[in-house]
Specification:
- The structure is a single chain.
- Helices cover 52% and strands 9% of the residues.
- With 90 residues, it is mainly alpha-helical.
- Strands 1-3-2 form a three-stranded antiparallel sheet.
- The longest helix has 12 residues.
Length: 90
Amino acid sequence: MTSLARALLEQFGPNDLAELADRLRLYLPPTPEPNGDEWLDSKRAAAHLGISMATLRRLIAAKDIPVHQERAGGRIYFRRAELDQWRTQT
């Protein structure tokens, strides 16, 4: 950040910063709810659970984890809410 930008931000009060945040929100991608029921691919599911891809593959092969597949041999997806529920039950 430049010194000019930093000096300008230091002049903003709380109301000014709130308005700036509201205006910038239009340009930022939406953030998913932390407990939302979004779809995750294998990489994001492993990261969400804090496990390696190899461990996730073993859980899938053992049918120990809730998983969804478009068709046989197709991509595998996970619902965040189901993973959270599975994690609390194991």
